């Protein structure tokens, strides 16, 4: 590499016009390309030069490389200045506050669900979940619900096949069966989730609502244990409200009761409960002569209706941001 060649390369670098990004890319490949770049080839040819001359030529090549990099940096800085000028000459005001991202709020039903889980964890309950698609045995038969029971009717239950053995669960009690079948007492379990019923005449969302169910199995569990648990739940959610238990009937509990609270000068039904029927315990392999237990179920939408003083439960499913954003987790 003689002096004339060095001058020629310097002139080439200086005269190369970079007007746009495509030109810059061409310039970088021309001089710094990994295989055929001019500077790259010069560095590769250094090994062919004698050791005495290598140091001098290496210095010259580094200077050429520096000129190339300076030209690249110069173009980038000019490009940035032009971009800023365009911004300044436009209607854009860089001092104007940006658009804020609206942060969503927790759905009121989720607030209550989280609160119920927190309440029961304090007294030793474990939160478990189960499948929403169930079979007849877990959803009906194991719970002592006879074939003639109205809830098995096609008008009330969403069956998913002609055999009537696969369906959308009508209550979270099916989780109770699955858990008891695979675990040995004692245990305290809370399950919360969606359940599906064709209830066109009710104030539900006509096909789905949320249900929380708790059950406890141990030696010498009595109805007084159930009452204390219900009282603890209602006091934690509503404060000191009057509570009453009315005799009722459920196929899977005996004795059974409906629970009402006195709110706004009237009695409101909020949940059902009772002692687990011995037949249900036998169905899952638990000896009713040794163990007993209680169970209760409550609709989350109904609790929300009372807590937030809503007139129509269906409002919770309208997805109206104006309605939802007013709720905060005050619990």
- Please write the string of helix (H) and strand (E) elements: HHHHHEEHEHEEHEEEHEHH
- Shape summary: elongated
Specify Rg, calculated over alpha carbons: 38 Å
The spatial strand order of the largest sheet comes to: 1-4-5-9-8-7-6
Number of helices: 11
Distance between the termini: 82 Å
**CATH fold-level assignment of the largest domain:** BirA Bifunctional Protein, domain 2
Q: How helix-rich are the residues, as a percent range?
A: 40-55%
Overall mean confidence score, pLDDT: 85
Binned strand content:
15-25%
The CATH class of the largest domain, by name, is Alpha Beta
Indicate the low-confidence ranges by residue numbers: none
CATH superfamily of the largest domain: Bira Bifunctional Protein, Domain 2
Alpha-beta content class: alpha+beta
Q: Tally of extended strands? A: 9
> In the CATH hierarchy, what is the architecture of the largest domain at level 2?
2-Layer Sandwich
Can you describe this structure?
It is built from eleven helices and nine strands. It is α+β, with helices and mostly antiparallel strands and 331 residues long. The strands form two sheets. It has a seven-stranded mixed β-sheet with strand order 1-4-5-9-8-7-6, with helices on both faces. A two-stranded antiparallel ribbon has the order 2-3. Helix 1 (3-15) packs parallel to helix 4, helix 2 (21-32) runs antiparallel to helix 4 (51-89) and helix 5 packs across helix 10 (300-307). It is elongated.
